[in-house]
Give the backbone structure.
Amino acid sequence: IISFIDNNLPYNPPSMLGHIEYNLPSSNDSQNLRIPIQSALDSNQRPIEIEFSYHKTIQFFNLVEPGTFSNTTNDQFSELEVQQVDNLAIPIVLFINGKSGGKQGMELINQFRKLSNITASQVINILEGGPMHGLRKFRNVPNLKVIACGGDGTGRWVLETIDKMVDQENSARMVCPLPPPVAILPLGTGNDIGRVLGWGGGYIGEPVNKLIELYTDSEEVKLTRWVIKTERQNDEENHFQVPEHAIMNNYLSIGYVDAKIALNFHKKREESPNLFINRKVNKMFYVRYGFGAMWDDLIHGKDQKLDSILTLKVDDRPYALNDLENIIVLNLPSYAGGMNLWGVQNDPEYRPVSFCDNYLEVIGLRSAFHLGQVGTGMSSGVRIAQGSKIEIIFNRDGIKLPGKIDGEPWILSKPTTFVITLHNQRTMLCKKNTPSCYYNNNNSKCGWIRSRRVRGLLRFWAIISKTEKRLVLFNSRVSQEPAHNYLLDDYSLQTKGNIIELYHKKTTKLVSLLFDESRESPEEWADYLEQCGIEVARE
């Protein structure tokens, strides 16, 4: 059965143009199978992607290239070569954004293609035709893992293409393997998806063979994704119109603080793309526009509150936006390059923040100064609500209100309604031994500690996970990259005054922890450790 799918129409759902039957040869050699396909299938002369399924053996084939058919009136035939890739030495395909990270993308393409254990066809420049071709080519490889090498936008591109591929397969009623899990090799500016999955805030030159080992040995987690449907009036003079339909992985931001900074940054990058050569330069421009917003607040003191122009509903319940200049609907516990907007997980009124729980967090910012305080760990955002359905109504005409979805900026100038609901969950790959408390602080204890080492005292933010019996130290409360990661079953612990000492059981190495900046005493921390099932020797 050969099904024809119009790939040019929206993929919710794709348009089925019909199918034809063809008697395949008795030979099981599918590597060089050639099938004549009759022309005159599409009167609009548009490209058509073709799915092949060999029902006798439940074997599926993918096209190397999508076929292009034109309207003809004769009986001419086109021949398409079908190739199936069903086995790889290492079941990985890398989609690399050649423009990400300055020259890092192209350098990684060259380095990965020099490896002896993966083929050059497994390393794909995503800018040359997108990810669909590679996803289809390696669709049937067992235990396939997809690595999106770029920023959060590259990851979004790969995930949305997987959505499209799955929708087409479902429409064609094909029996196919589960969609492959996706990992991130962070080459962008913010890299928040990479951070929460444990891959860090940016590629820093690790050997590519070591990266292959890490991604091969990664673990699966679920990422909740959201659909934003927008009802708006067209404004022909507005060159930054919000899309009517968008998939959200990270966040939606609306207002005069963060969203306005992002819009100015985007405009500058469009005007002078040659200035934005790497991640550090991008962040410098972002900081520049952030200080500009603070200066405007200080000098002009404009009244840019949202309560008179926005209406917010979470799970059909209205919420006030008193004294707020920006609201952010957040899916990840990391924002704008590792910022922790929600703050410490210590309020029983709210659920622990997680990207896999089918809940969103709605957070407010009072000013650009407030954003700066959040970025330095001095404060957190204003917690508004958590929920699984968010409705935002912009009810004013003639006022320009900036916004952005996953980094893509736009301007509202006409009355607009946003409705955010659950889209799906996709399987992602996190770095092995990344603690679940790193992305879901359920059953965990947090606080400031000092780690006593040979060179003195180092200050860290600590999370102790009860479920995993793990102590994770971060450089700051807003950091998304662990500085130290202790599996407590590997340590013996003892309290001495205001110190809890950790001795590694095998090496007898001592790590002394002084819990002097939290409200609880070391004894209370020791009590919690014992609740986790960790034995603590007391004085």
Remarks:
- The radius of gyration is 26 Å.
